[in-house]
Amino acid sequence: MKKINILSPGFETPNGSAFLFPLIIFSKQLKSHGIKINIYSKLDSRIFDADIIGVDSKFHKYLWSHDEDTIYKNLSILKKNCGSLIYFDTTDSTGNLQTEVFNYVDLYCKGQILKNRNKYLEPFYGNRIFSDFAYKNFKIKDKFPEYSKPLTNKNDLKKLQVSWNTGLADYSPFGPSLMKMYRYFPIKKFLSFKNIKVIQKKDILHARFGDNYSKNSVAWQRKKISILLKNIENRKISRLKYFSELKRTRISISPFGWGEITLKDFESFLCNAILFKPSMEHLDTWPNFFIQDKTYVPFSWDLSDFISKLSDLEKNYLNFLDIAINGRKNYLIYASKSGEEKFTQHFLDILHCVN
To answer: Coil, strand, or helix at residue 299?
Structure first.
């Protein structure tokens, strides 16, 4: 039996919850393949009793701004007391790696990474490849400009691996509340994948999304779409009303947020809506929920084809209905009990990279 100890603050954030969710609900399947998972919220001597230690990046989230030395000290201690150290970057986008930790870890895993890994050898404006795109093509500037820190050693690219994205969690109407309950009362029954009954579609378009971001280079796309859809209601509503609306809607618009992948993507899959979002062809992720013109309909980052493609979707909905069906079907292959074998094999593949 191989023992894997995970250091994580737990179910405190959506990304952190989605990182831990499959490790917990698929724990029996992992164990049947010789993998024992233990999760610790504090760094103490118990965590050293492991073949491999994994660190959720959220564990050090609040130290980066004022106490980086403690982060490096912790990673050094962990590295000295285990066979292999894996860093799980649970931040949103593909663009910004925490390159400072590469010297301390054997493997750096992230839920979504750039297909062209050499791009990590250069900086991105706004810490994201799509923010960099906005800056270079439209001169969109942030009030406090930032650039990602590129890798300086090309050999470090070999440490990069795809872990799993945020899709493997409960995104049903009460899912976030149940995961929050688990944070305070860690009873496994609170965690399960949910399905949503498909109903007849009466509404055409769902475009509820926020655009109030501290970075202009992140917000610009959403703001532009809001202008293009000025007659479409986009204010926030309660989660139950939101799902009631989304279940009735044919087309769901899901722009990039802090990252390319957003929780609305998974909610749209569950509700059998056609997912309409910026092209995802630049990234690798697992599971691959984003297959162009098969599970979602892409539009260009510069929005040049946004109106024409949306008009085509609205006028010829039945011609695109298979995309909604395939998107939902593909999502439920992984985000369900039937996904345990696939997740277990993917996790084993990650571990093989450090053996």
So the answer is: strand
